[in-house]
Amino acid sequence: MVTATSDIGCLLHDTLEVIVVQESAVDAGDDLVICDGETTNLAGLGEGVVSWTPNIGMTNATSLTPSISPVVATTYYMTVTNGECVIEDSVFVAVNEDTEISGMDMTICYGDSVMLEIFGEADTYTWRPDVSLSQLDIPDPMVAPESTTTYHVTGQLSTCNPDTATATIFVNNAPQFRTEAVRYFVPGQTVELNILLLQESALEYQWSPVGGLSCSTCQSPSVTPDSTSTYTLTVTDPATGCVAEQRVTIQQLYACPEELFGVPNAFSPNGDGFNDELELKISPSIENIEVFRVFNRWGAMVFQTNDKYETWDGTFKGQPLGEGVYIYMLEVKCELDGEMIMKRGDITILR
Which of 42, 44, 140, 272 is 20 to 30 A distant from 241 in Cα terms? Predict the structure, then answer.
């Protein structure tokens, strides 16, 4: 703004506006990938007089969005002139004959899901197989396979020849272990929260809550509960990072139901290493049994024990008994009220 005073004292005013054009106001657009023979438009931004070079195969080189159909990869330069300001920017256009895509293999834990990743440019996608795929026609579907699976995808960019890529999802098993969901106890009894491992690799353990436990990070801690409680066991396989979780309820007994002890109805003592011995199913809350007896069809006793851990191999006086049905009688004394509980049934020997 300028102010001047005339010879006779008049005040005169005038203004001059100076426009500053930032370089960021001019943009030739993002780099492009097109197919051989394809026509596309550039996407320039800016204010002023526009000029593109080179302009071979280009229509309207003075437009911000000229049409182009290059036959080879080309860098286009856009010059925008606004008054005394001249700003230049460029865009690279790659020309492909074939679609080019690639996949990435990944590893997950059983039960987890993951997003498939495909690198490269394509307009359409077709996945196979359809095992647990969230969608079959997008570049990044979610998958949750139960076992290691290789997925194949065919992608096509415009008129380019299609390309096929693969992505293998390796599935690691969660830690393999087993424990009873409910453990019973009588007041004053110490309960061991033992688990059965179903794999050989070393595992890491975390029990919670930790109050009252002899150890919160060992495989089989013990606790002397005073009421019904629930503990959560989190098991981690450090080799894979996979985690499994299970809840164990320590339930106080006010009576002794028959569910606390049982006898399998069959076993096969044939020396194959599987189910060769009869093992009683006795809850840890039962300290011991009074007696367990087995009789043949004529009523002769062929086995007897008062040790709940003792097993029977299907022999009598060192000789294998034949296939058939045998009768058992199991007597257990309830620690809560002293009541004697008796269970009878039959056992089948299979050879």
Answer: 140
DSSP β-bridge partners for residue 12: 4
User: What distance lies between CA 329 and its chain's CA centroid?
Assistant: 48
Q: Are strands 291-295 and 301-305 parallel, antiparallel or unpaired?
A: antiparallel
- Tokens 């840890």 belong to 284
Determine whether 16 is exposed, middle or buried from the number of CB atoms within 10 Å of its CB (0-12, 13-18, 19+): exposed
pTM above the 0.70 mark? no
Burial letters 29-61, b for 16+ CB under 10 A, else e: beebbbbbebeeebebebebebebeeeeebeeb
pLDDT of residue 337: 72
Tens of pLDDT, residue by residue over 310-328, are 999 999 999 999 999 999 9
Distance CA(208)–CA(246), nearest Å, equals: 11
Distance CA 81, CA 301 (A): 110
Q: Which residues contact 36 (CB under 8 A, 6 or more apart)?
A: 71, 95, 96, 97, 159, 160
β 67-68/40-41 pair status: antiparallel
Rounded Cα–Cα distance for residues 57 and 185 (Å): 87
Both tokens assigned to 261: 């002890």
d(CA 179, CA 207) in angstroms, rounded, equals: 13
DSSP letters of 286-332? S---SEEEEE-TTS-EEEEES-TT--B-SEETTEEPPSEEEEEEEEE
d(CA 122, CA 271): 61
CA angle, 274 then 171 then 243, to 5°? 80
Buried b (16+ CB within 10 A) or exposed e, 232-263: ebebbbeebebbbebebebbebeebeeebbeb
Residue pair 144/112 in contact by the 8 Å Cβ criterion: yes
